[in-house]
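Continuing the series of single-chain predictions for the mutant panel. This is the parent chain; the variants come on the following pages.
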Amino acid sequence: MTRKNSIKTIVANCLFGFSTAELFALRWARTQYPMHKAYNVFFVVKSDTKGHDSGTLLSFCMHIILPTILVCVVVRLISLLFDTVYKRIYGRRPVTYFNNIKKHLQLNIVYVVSATLFSVFMLKAWKYPLIFYEVHKKPVPSVFYEKNYVDPRNVSVTFPDRKRNLIVIFMESMESSYASIADGGVFDENLIPGLTSLGQQNINFSETSKLGGGENLEGTSWTAAGMISKLGGVPYFSPFFKQPDGKKTCLSGVVFLTDILAQSGYKNIFSIGSDKQFESRDIILEDHHTEVHDINWYKKHGEIPPDYHVFWGFEDEKLFAITRKELTDLGSGEQPFFYGMLTVDTHFPDGYKSRNCPKIFKRQIMNVIRYSDTQICSLIDWIQKQSWYENTTIVIMGDHNFLNAPDNNFIVEESPLPDAESQRRWLDIIINSVSNAPQFVQKNRQFSPYDMYPTMLESIGCTIKGHALGFGRSLYTGNKTLVEQYGADTVNTELMRRTVEYEALKK
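Parent structure:
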């Protein structure tokens, strides 16, 4: 074989391997990640991904690299076997795809082009250049901002004489949809009986007359975006800004709930069992007067062994135990406190099955959800027995809906309802609220993550002039939210574009 033909053969084999890997990667991505949520994927990939799920690399190898190698080896072995048998029967080598170098190269060029076009179509990859353009184009003035954004810097927020503690629990991917159909969810059997009971006994704002929750909007539907929208009342739309000294900041012009609390003398702590740098959550929270305790902080302070790491960091069993210690310390002081926390075991695609997780359902994620329900209810029961509970309000929220992959949507697959997807909402529960919310205010509401910002402040007895902050409208008043006033599609369209107003809030 000449040197030129050897190079062609190598190129052809590389093209075959690349195309095969591309198709396996497509399948892997569509079963592991919400590839149909272009904004989610774009902003998460663009962010700091340090501290990502430790199982990602192994999954990549198991579902892409190893199958690709196996296919290449099997195809080559079949070709060699065919050549050998053919030569023994006919006394000469056959003219096949592999030993006709020109044809081999041409067919693999067709293969790689076809695989690429198919992947682009299945992933709707043309959306990403459009989002990139939208994020980086020249900002334009927004009439929607002018009419509807309520700048907290210009609003009077008055605290009661005795300031209440506020505990905010962000539950990873927790939906009201996990309840039974009879209780307002989409399943035959209730995956969250404990939370359902808490929602029925306390305040639960809902889109129906039963257990329910808020609506995911663009720029609010992954963890970092959920934090920004629920605590700051604005969307995640490239919210970071590089200052002249090189420091990266997050929405310096936005007053978060935690800023208001800190200015009123609160001690703010946020606890997570993963690396705070992932998606720049450290910048989001620390820029807004919140001390973040993450896996590295807990290792440094002896709460977690130095070499310990499972899933995203450490499991919720350990997080809930640590939470009890930290709340005990905060509750023993005289200073009012804000304590936020973020669970992780129920993260897509399958969740983390810890040692005490029950095996009730066939799908692991459903068992993990049930165990998360048990653990959170145990924590709430413990809190309610503490001496400082009487002066404490607890808010439980899903940080966003479960991020199903296009080819792995357990909710639709397991629900008997044909319209289960349209009924999905992230859960909200407010326990021991100061403000009253009669049923006609709580139920049959359309609201978004933005509305939780003023709602949480009013839950601890704050008086907000106009009952609005950012793009949020307090749900206690019964006043129309932006989703009720304009519709979700309009809000998405108006807030998912680069505006002069949003850019000004970043600096």
